Amino acid sequence: MRLRWFAAWSAGLILTFLAVPTQWRGLPFMLLTLSVIPAVWSGARRSPAGTRSPWWFMLAMLGFFNAGNLVWIWDVEVRHHATGDGGVADLLFAVANICSLAGALIVVVRRGRRDVGGVIDSAVAALAFGGLLWDAAVLPHLTAAGTPLVRQVTLFVSLFVMCGTVGALARVSLASGTRLPAVRLLAWAMAGAMSGNLASIFFTDPATGVRPDWTNALFLVGYACTACAALHPSASTVTQPGTAPADDLTPLRLTFLGAMIALIPIVGGVRMIAGEPSAGILVALGSAGIVPLVMLRIARLASQRRAAEKSLRHLATTDGLTGLPNRAACLADLTTALAGDPAGTAVVFLDLDGFKSVNDGLGHAAGDALLVAVARRLREDIRSEDTVYRLGGDEFVIICGSDDVDTIAARIRDLVTRPVPIGAGDVRIGVSAGVAHAVPGDTTDGLIIRADLAMYEAKRAKRIGALSITVAPEPVAA
User: Fold this and answer.
1) Bridge partners of 346?
2) How far apart are CA 176 and CA 171, in angstroms?
3) What is the pLDDT of residue 249?
4) Is the pLDDT of residue 277 over 60?
5) Contact 186, 174 (CB under 8 A)
6) What is the pLDDT of residues 65-88, one digit of tens each?
7) Residue 389: pLDDT above 90?
8) How far is residue 107 from each of residues 10, 38, 54, 103, measured CA to CA in Å?
9) What pLDDT is stored for residue 478 in this prediction?
10) Residues 6+ apart with CB under 8 A from 426
């Protein structure tokens, strides 16, 4: 309800500002700019602690803007200057713009943290549009008006940054999953301020420095949108991360980014070839603003690709239930070990005794829980330099040094004496183990088969709560 009342109030004041005689316009202008302060304060107070920083920056922006407005009115009404532009008011307005940009960028960074690629693409597009607008329209106008280069650079940086911020806000507001109206209103607020700055550039009389009053209506629109954003129920969530859309740098998007990089230099070069004014320093500044964003975009995609490849490798070599390395990892590591010093390598092949009764009697969930518990104990109790693998079912393999088999057997023997808590009770298991010591000429499959056969031999003497172990004989030389 407050939002609707304020929207109606601000619309009425903007229309009044445009309708009343010039000497009375300061009243609706100040009424609107001052009434925005409690609206934004309300939005800040309704936001959870730790998420209010954008609104604090917006409040600071309003403070500086209103101070600048008062100085501007003082210069015109009391000191009888033709305009308040170009003095202390402009300095206050510049600080206000910085605060506004800081608040907007906080929203972009926090809300769009899961859509960094999309935000960068939108910002790059908006920056390129801003550069094109500058080269095609703003720069020729400023050159014709004899605007000093320092003033041109200041205006260019301001317009450039505001374009990028508006583009990023637009992306965040449209692609954040829930499409927050508060973020969209902030984008409109920034667009209103940017439109007011452009109108000031194009419609200011170069001789007197006076601009028409209607240009201030554009700033009023920006004020009103800021207040409406703060009053909207979604204002409290503008810094919550949005959803993560698919981020794929397709050939079309890559072509687009390349075109955006080249747009400003190309337009500036064409103007120079045609003999029209084009400030090389501004072209350099524009490119310097866009190129790092594109490089960040590509670097992010490269990082995502490396992470995806690492994740795929992990999935391909890790058992999904226990988190242990799987059969593929076991065979690969054993192949590597046999290629180095086969005589110092041993394989311990383990099979759980009593697993089937747990799995059949208590259910597959209990069986899975038992496998996870055993895997955890093996991982914790076996030495860090020895690797435990799950081959599948209730079969595990340990690759170790030949001299370490007795130590590992003792630890497994201690492990099986302890009951395993499953659900509301405890279960006891045994372990049958087959050991195969590698010899020169052993193959991966041959060593695993010998250990497996030895394990089946050990099962003949299996007992719950105990370790049954058999050492495989060395293969007979051909």
Assistant:
1) 400, 437
2) 8
3) 63
4) no
5) no
6) 888 888 877 877 777 776 666 678
7) yes
8) 24, 20, 7, 7
9) 47
10) 419, 420
Alpha helices, DSSP H only, in 275-326? Answer: 280-317
Q: Are 416 and 353 in contact (CB under 8 A)?
A: no
Classify 466 as helix, strand or coil: coil
pLDDT of residue 247: 62
Sign of dihedral through CA atoms 245, 251, 254, 255? negative
Asked if 291 contacts 166 with a C-beta cutoff of 8 angstroms, the reply is no
3-class DSSP state of 329: helix
The distance of Cα 272 from the centroid of its chain, to the nearest Å, equals: 40
For residue 258, pLDDT beyond 90: no
- The tokens for 375 are 């895997």
Pairing of strands 430-437, 467-471: parallel
Q: Can you read off the two tokens belonging to residue 201?
A: 């550039």
Q: What is the mean pLDDT of residues 46-55?
A: 84
User: How far apart, in whole angstroms, are the C-alpha atoms of residue 347 and residue 397?
Assistant: 7
Can you point out the beta strands (E) in 415-454?
420-422, 425-427, 430-437
Instruction: Tell me the average pLDDT across 168-192.
Output: 79
H or E segment and range at residue 359:
helix 355-362
Residue 252 has pLDDT above 80, yes or no: no
pLDDT over 70 (residue 273): no
Residue range 439-458: mean pLDDT, rounded: 89
Q: 10 or 315, which is more confident?
A: 10
Residue type, 356: K
Cβ atoms within 10 Å, residue 35: 16
Contacts with 133 (C-beta within 8 Å, 6 or more apart), sequence order: 159, 163, 198
Indicate if the alpha-carbon torsion angle 263, 266, 269, 275 is positive or negative: negative
Q: Judge contact between 270 and 218, C-beta under 8 A.
A: no
Q: Letter for the amino acid at 469? A: I
d(CA 451, CA 471): 8
Kindly tell me if the per-residue pLDDT of 396 is higher than 90.
Answer: yes
Q: How far apart are the first and last CA of the chain?
A: 92
What is d(CA 123, CA 168) in angstroms, rounded to the nearest whole number? 5
More confident residue, 122 or 345: 345
Give CA–CA dist 389/391, Å, rounded: 6
451 with 349: CB under 8 angstroms? yes
SS3 assignment, position 346:
strand
Nearest C-alpha neighbor of 184 from the set 196, 197, 192, 172: 172
Closest-CA residue to 396 (of 323, 303, 327): 327
Say what percent of the chain tops pLDDT 90: 8
